[in-house]
Amino acid sequence: MIDLSTIPSPLVQIVIGLIGVLAFVGLNGLVCVYLERKVAGHIQRRPGPFEVGPHGILQPLADAVKLVAKQMITPKGADPILYWAAPLISFAPAIACFLPLPFGPKLQNVSINVGLILILAFSSLNVLALCLAGWSSQNKWSLLGAARDIAQSVAYEIPLLLSLLPIILLTGSLNLAEITQTQGPWPWQWLVVKQPLAFIIFFVCVFAETNRAPFDLPEAESELTAGFHTEYSGMGFGLFFLAEYSYMVVGCALASILFLGGYQGPVASGWWWFLLKVYALLLVMMWVRWTYPRVRFDQLLNLAWKWFIPLSLLNILITALVVKL
Amino acid sequence: MSKQADSSICAYAYCSHEQTGYEKHFFITPASLLQHVQKLDELGYFLEDITCMQVKEGFLLTYHFNRWEKPGRLALRVLVVEEDKTIDSISSIYPGALWHERECYDFFGIVFKNHPSLIPLLLPPEMEERPLLKSSEKLRDLYELLPGCEQVLHAPRDEEFGQFIKECSQKGK
Amino acid sequence: MFDLELGLDLSGDFYTRHFQPTPSEDTLILNMGPQHPSTHGVLRVILEIDGEYILRAEPVLGYIHRMQEKMGEVKRYEQYLPNMGRVDYLHALAWNWAYVGAVERLMGLEVPKRAEYIRVITCELNRINSHLLWWGAYLLDLGAFTPIMYAFQDREIVMDILQRVSGSRLTYCYYRFGGVSQDIDDIFIEKTKEFCAYLKPRLKMYKDLVTDNIILRKRVEDIGIIEEETLRKYGATGPVLRGSGIKYDVRRKEPYSVYSELDFEIPTASSKDALGRYLVRMQEIEESLKIIEQALEKIPPGPHISPQAPRRPKPPRGEVYFAVEGARGEIGVNLVSDGSAYPYRVKLRSPSFSNLSMFPEIAKGTLLADAVSILGSLDLVIPEIDR
Questions:
Q1: How many C-beta neighbours within 10 Å does residue C22 have?
Q2: Would you kindly state where each structural domain of chain B is located, as residue ranges?
Q3: Which of A247, B67, C374, C376 can bridge C224 by disulfide, Cβ–Cβ 3.0-4.6 Å?
Q4: C372 pLDDT exceeds 50?
Q5: From B14, which residue of chain C is nearest by alpha-carbon distance?
Q6: Confidence of residue B153 (pLDDT cuts 50, 70, 90)
Q7: Interface probe, candidates A149, A150, A221, A223, chain C, greatest C C-beta count within 10 A
Q8: Is the model's pLDDT at B1 over the cut of 70?
Q9: Rounded Cα distance, C115 and C99, in Å
Q10: CATH 3.30.460.80 fits B11-170, yes or no
Q11: Given strand B58-66, what is the order of strands in its sheet?
Q12: Do C318 and B17 touch (CB under 8 A)?
């Protein structure tokens, strides 16, 4: 495996890392689309895509070609600059979120001591993009979707951060590689054992932050047609789509680094363990999406304000007491 | 008004539920429609639908009412003459009539007085034609279509209805 | 929006302008439909919303209007039969039945016992199909994607069974004046019995998997409560009425065919909300299974169509009303004959029409998401409303 730290110049290191991340994000998009459609298919007792390639394996490529080839339409009355900036603003920070992730023992693009903060900061930018998309579309459904998204993201940002504080208290670090190393290779050494509540709250918040069912209210198609991306066609929609999957991966990667021991596994620790954990969590997200109905908007906010925030505060308090004693 | 017909409440020669699906028919005058409908509302009837039919004499509006308990379906019939195609809207008593009346307005052009928004329901707003109007050679007399109602046509039976209501309320007590 | 150059008011079409005489700064006029995922077809609802709360709602109809009643007047009695499968494509056989029943009543035509039983069996199968599709589509409205696929898997079996006897899968034209077009055979009976045995455990699974789900409960409980008075004033029928605890079913109230010989319950729910309507429909599937099983036991031998049945009926003069219980409520056909081969007037009373007319009242003050839930719980079939 490549050892990124042997590359001399930090600039070259970042460029290579970026290329690697872009390749990973693109590839991951394809894999996720295929996985999503197959999982949905099998949950719904149908085979899923089957025509393009063996077992439909080339279907995501066909989808991508279709999206790229489609005409990009700007609706009449929309603000063209903001309208086309929105998908880019949504997608670009997702790349930055991948940089501090330790994929393997030495497979980390940027080893900085505030990696966790960096990811959280960049992933919050997504809400701005969605807000812009909804606002500039000149569509009432998009506007409603954007309004929902802002309320939802703001509400869930808080328990998300609060649920991570106990981890920082326990490990005493914001560097993701260090947090990984404080956990052992065996499941009982992982932080999820010490912090089960924080893990649950964090994972549910990831659902809400990435707008996945049952919390997909900003794009709830049976209510708001397609929410904030109603008017987007072609790659404009494609970028939102790719960003959603990237944030899902970032969320699942954070969950596996912080709570599930990252790249460490019972036998032969390495990047494969990391990917295994990430994709296992992704599968859970897909499973949930295709099983549950959507919650209502006020119920969603109630869950955050009335349950998650008090619970995570309590969790912090208890953890702080235990650490201090 | 002849007395001999009053012995039977039903105006038809045949009017069994088996044969027509109706329990009762009443021909009433357009002016008394609202007060009759008010009575039915008090008795707990619900509005099934409002239908219209063009005949030589004009337009026969039929209000179908039914009840969750027995007795069953009841038809209030009002004849609206060609020259004055207007009648009171019953939507103040039964708001469910709003759409049925708009439908009759669409298909026949009957104007319902005091209807809050008498705009086309099923047909395009710019459409001028009234699709269910018949050409004169296709029109039939009312007594031809509804055998046994020759007498009542020219003497609408508001009294019969009053009798029926009285009976119903007595049963209810 | 106002076009200064042309002097035209461009703020929507006729109905939008009619809906909004005084534009307000605080509220938003929103067009839900005619192409909207949760209006199932081409229903359009104009909403005035404040945030996500609905202040006013006004359905706009007519996007799939085909003037069925005019077609009834220009076609012969028998030519009009296929139209009936297309009024309500989900419970086509109930409309078939309402129309042939009206003509039979007009002519005083006797229907053989066997034909009546065949009608009961096929009509109830069709009702199960309709309710299953509603179940799937309603959950799709609530954001659950998977149940509709399960429902379609079950529907497929029923459609295969009905295809055997009627030749079509959705828009049936199976009933004839005085009977049915084709007798059922042993394979039909066997397959129907198999289906009854198959569906019962599935219904239990649906209950465990979907009905008892906490998220679903939160979306339907205490949503869209309809009071008795509203139901009566608007003439609502069917599961919408029974979901509010009123035991009114045409099959029991004015029994037609052989329903009086069969033993079945009329499920009601007292909660008056969307959950009540949901549970009533799920129980109705079970009752329909019960009816089918009994009818299969009791079905007598004999002709499947009356020997006196005319191919081209010319009913005597007169007027009849024939009501049947469809999946959505009371279906009524009001037929006036002038003694010729063409009906003088055909009036179709569709249950969804009355049920939808309540919507502006019950949607007032609810959230947009709840309005979607209410609209779904009314079980609308738009072609039936527009006719």
A1: 4
A2: 11-170
A3: C374
A4: yes
A5: C318
A6: low
A7: A223
A8: no
A9: 15
A10: yes
A11: B24-28, B74-80, B58-66, B46-55
A12: no
pLDDT at B8 over 70: no
A and C touch with 3+ CB pairs <8 Å, answer yes
Distance from the Cα of C196 to chain B's closest Cα (Å) equals: 31
In chain C the domains, ranked by start, together with CATH numbers, are: 68-385 (1.10.645.10)
pLDDT tens for each residue of C210-220: 888 888 888 88
- The answer to whether C and B touch (≥3 CB pairs < 8 Å) is yes
- Domain residues for the domain of A167 are 73-324
Phi-psi region of B146 (alpha: psi -120 to 50; beta: other; left: phi over 0): beta
A144: chain C residues, CB-CB within 8 Å: 52, 368
* Min Cα separation B145/chain C (Å): 5
Q: Which amino acid, one-letter code, is at B17?
A: H
Which residue of chain A has the CA closest to C209? A291
Amino acid B14: pLDDT: 44
Residue A162 has pLDDT above 70, yes or no: yes
Q: Answer whether C98 touches B (CB < 8 Å).
A: no
CA distance C122 to chain A (A): 27
pLDDT confidence of B10, banded at 50, 70, 90? very low
Q: Does B124 touch chain C (CB under 8 A)?
A: yes
Residue C288 tokens read as 């329909």
pLDDT surpasses 50 at A40: yes
| Residue A56 covered by a domain | no
Residue A68 lies in a domain: no
Distance from CA of A138 to the nearest CA of C (A): 13
pLDDT digits (tens, 9 = 90+) for A220-242: 777 777 778 888 888 888 888 88
Smallest CA–CA distance, residue C19 to chain B, in Å, is: 10
Cα–Cα distance, B84 to A148 (Å, whole number): 54
**Neighbouring-strand partners of residue C59:** C45
Give the pairing of strands C179-180 and C175-176. antiparallel
* C-chain residues near B121 (CB < 8 A): 61-62
Nearest CA in chain B to C354: B96
Q: Does some domain include residue A2?
A: no
DSSP letter, residue C316: P
Joined together, the tokens standing for residue A293 give 């109905």
Instruction: Evaluate if residue B13 carries a pLDDT over 70.
Output: no
Confidence of residue B158 (pLDDT cuts 50, 70, 90): low
Q: Which of A141, A213, A293 sits opposite C219 (nearest CB)?
A: A293
Contact C234 B95 (CB under 8 A): yes
Residue A26 has pLDDT above 80, yes or no: yes
Complex confidence, ipTM:
0.84
Which pTM was predicted? 0.86
Mean pLDDT over the full length of chain C: 86
Return the amino acid letter for C323: A
Contact C309, C107 (CB under 8 A): no
Q: What is the mean pLDDT of residues A113-119?
A: 84
Burial (CB count within 10 angstroms: exposed 0-12, middle 13-18, buried 19+), residue C277: buried
